[in-house]
Automatic annotation (TrEMBL):
Domain Nudix hydrolase: 210-340
CC terms in the record's Gene Ontology section: cytosol; peroxisome
Cofactor or coenzyme needed: Zn(2+); Mg(2+)
Assigned keywords, A-Z: Hydrolase, Magnesium, Metal-binding, NAD
Protein's UniProt name: NAD(+) diphosphatase
Enzyme class, broadest EC rank: hydrolase
Stored PROSITE patterns: NUDIX, NUDIX_BOX
Any Pfam family the entry gives: NUDIX-like
EC number, as in UniProt: 3.6.1.22
Length: 410
């Protein structure tokens, strides 16, 4: 079956920041002033032209979500973001000793077709709050990586929700990592509704903006275009192989980073480097909340592998037929449905958990000899694009006809 993705997961955010215009009620500056008015006065009373406000709570990087549709007749449940109206949010948090202020909220943006502005907020561990949200609102904090796997790629609304959740987590984790000025050490304060921070020291006043951690991820292809180089890390589940990847160093071009990482990790020399696509990746460690995966095809000039064991557990050349078989037999859709059911169980506090074996099993029920990451990852699209294309006559032809990368035959 073919899955058509208009964009990678975590891309295609439907909320966009409005350009700060004086008379635009949905702009960042106007929304922030309206927000302060609501919080310091009666939030039930909306001034003229004031937008409505909704808040998405996060706890330790996990967004608040709901679940809909009971699993029956083959229809799996679907998760959605658990937005709470500003007034309701203020009441719920106040009951548990959490004060809602304009400095605790981060501006996410607005939808073009709505008169609503969306905000994100981080809340600390509070069991009573978690219990109330689950019992009264049927809402639960869920790991972003779990939601990533549970996302139905054919549902554009849920794809948008995942992008919003990724954006919110990245911003909030950046705020947690930048509480103090890196220049003088004084505390930083929020500016521009959380889109930047500034040192509180009147002498320093350094401005701090959200960080971006670019990562190159590359599918290394041999000279005959018949095999690809895939690596394994020790943290991978058994039989999973993926593309090589690494962080870009200061003063280094994207192409140079691809060549350096390939050589450092596997001893393979890379010549031509061809851009494929990019993907925001907010599911990394808390210390690196704003990763951007930049994907490439990289054409090898050498074949002998010399694995750096500190970086990889193993690296091997895999034939086109082996990769096609791995894509053909892995049941990524089944894995998605099981993850969605798991999220539903978490929200409804069901103790029974169903383990996910999809991706590890062939459709016959036997263990697949190898598999690659699912369609939620850019690695999958690099690999599936190469595996399912007609072999080009050479790398020059490859450059003249860039691969689409968003159609995966599973």
């Amino acid at each position: 079956m073919a899955i058509n993705l208009n964009s990678h997961l975590f891309a295609g955010n439907p909320l966009r920041s409005k350009t700060p215009k004086l008379h635009d009620p949905l702009s960042l500056s106007s929304s922030f002033e309206s927000l302060k008015s609501h919080l310091h006065q009666n939030p039930e009373t909306h001034p003229p032209n004031s937008p409505f406000f909704k808040v998405l709570l996060f706890k330790k990087g996990r967004p608040l979500v709901s679940s809909s549709i009971e699993e029956e007749d083959g229809v799996a449940p679907s998760w959605h973001l658990g937005w709470i109206d500003l007034a309701d949010c203020k009441t719920i948090l106040g009951k548990h000793g959490v004060q809602l202020t304009e400095t605790s909220l981060v501006y996410l943006g607005s939808r073009a077709e709505e008169h609503v502005v969306y905000w994100a907020m981080d809340v600390f561990e509070n069991r009573e709050l978690v219990t109330e949200l689950r019992n009264s609102k049927q809402l639960c904090f869920v790991e972003l990586r779990t939601l990533m796997i549970a996302t139905d790629w054919t549902d554009s609304w849920v794809m948008g929700d995942l992008a919003i959740a990724g954006h919110g987590r990245a911003l909030l984790e950046w705020h947690n990592q930048s509480r103090f000025c890196g220049h003088c050490g004084d505390k930083t304060v929020l500016k521009e509704a959380g889109r930047m921070k500034q040192c509180s020291n009147e002498i320093c006043k350094k401005s701090v903006y959200p960080r971006l951690d670019p990562v190159v991820i590359m599918l290394v292809i041999d000279r005959e275009n018949n095999r690809v180089l895939l690596g394994r890390q020790s943290r991978f589940v058994p039989r999973m192989w993926s593309c090589l990847a690494g962080f870009i160093e200061p003063g280094e071009s994207l192409e140079e980073a691809v060549r350096r990482e390939a050589y450092e990790e596997t001893g393979i020399e890379v010549g031509e480097v061809v851009y494929h696509s990019s993907q925001p990746w907010p599911v990394g460690p808390n210390s690196l909340p704003c990763q951007l995966m930049v994907g490439f095809f990289a054409y090898a000039k050498s074949l002998e592998i010399n694995v750096d064991k500190e970086e990889l557990e193993d690296a091997q050349w895999h034939s086109r037929e082996d990769v096609r078989k791995a894509l053909r037999f892995a049941e990524y859709k089944k894995e998605q449905r099981l993850a969605a059911a798991k999220v539903d169980q978490m929200i409804k506090a069901v103790k029974k958990r169903r383990s996910s074996l999809a991706g590890y099993l062939a459709k016959s029920g036997e263990l697949a000899p190898m598999f690659v990451p699912g369609p939620f990852a850019i690695a999958h699209h690099l690999i599936s694009t190469w595996a399912n294309q007609d072999p080009p006559t050479g790398t020059k032809a490859q450059m003249k006809k860039p691969p689409s990368g968003f159609v995966s035959k599973l």
